[in-house]
Amino acid sequence: MSIIEINGITKDYGNRKGIFNLLFAVEKGEVFGYLGPNGAGKTTTIRHLLGFLTPDTGSAKILGMDCRKDSAEIMKHLGYLPAEIAFFDGMKGMDFLKFMGEMRGLANTSYRDALIEKFQLDTKGTIRKMSKGMKQKLGIICAFMHDPQVLILDEPTSGLDPLMQNIFAGLILEEKAKGKTILMSSHSFEEIEKTCDRIGIIRAGELVTTEDIHVLKTKRRKSYLITFDSPATASAFAKTDSFDNITLDGASAKVDVLGSVTRLMEALSGFTVIDFDTQKNSLEEVFMQYYGSTITEENATKQGGVR
Ligand SMILES: Nc1ncnc2c1ncn2[C@@H]1O[C@H](COP(=O)(O)OP(=O)(O)OP(=O)(O)O)[C@@H](O)[C@H]1O
Predict the structure, then answer these.
(1) d(CA 238, CA 220)
(2) Which SUPFAM superfamilies match (predicted)?
(3) Among 97, 268, 286, 291, which lies 20 to 30 A Cα-Cα from 65?
(4) Dist. CA 137 → ligand 1 center (Å)
């Protein structure tokens, strides 16, 4: 039995908005990254899993239970971080965590306290006065503190600074090692790449693909920005003809590499390199790398009125 199942869900909001015949499953111990641009349908999918929405067709299950009918039972085993956190604004952070803990019958608060420590959150102040990042940390602690078997996290790192994003990635890996099943949505391939086993890409309400992250990494083209000691060295490197796609700019060269970076490292060994940087690709670029013109053609067809 899969832990999370989305069985052919359609929720049509009209105007081509919503989700359409979605079908995927997340297995025990798996971290599943759910990626897509703004408005693709990630939150709508997650709201079905939480039992907040009734699908037009299809169904969702968690731990074999129906997300709509058995949501009270499911909640006992689930940690949820919403995309937009609405807390009781006037409450102090710690009072909120205590309140949520009591609702869930949390007897042992040691994990909660360890999470507060890990995220360095000052829980003494009122939630109203907390920054976006602090509220996000509070939401994360609340989702994990009762040690649930299943976690559903809607854009968990939004508002977190890079240091906290790394701490969050570490937490996900620890939870994965405990055998937790995690579905997390994101816009960022880079973020998902650090933690997930598999990703699903949704676009315009339809699942474009689900793929093993290791397979994707080998298919992925990355850009590297290399700064040499002089423009002459940069052009000498470009003339080695080792790579198809080199763009020169003074002493710098941007090189696109597919898969392993070993070949680039070897090619650079005879040159003086001052700086070496990876350029992050946007999700859109990653889409284009994997699916090339297919996506644009599909979109053009849809915009022309055919689904
Ligand atoms: N209740 C609703 N009524 C009508 N349209 C809706 C409703 N809820 C969502 N939508 C539309 O459905 C589409 C999918 O929205 P959803 O919030 O699931 O996207 P998302 O992938 O989570 O986006 P983001 O990354 O911006 O959070 C959007 O076009 C949105 O405007």
Answers:
(1) 22
(2) P-loop containing nucleoside triphosphate hydrolases
(3) 97
(4) 24
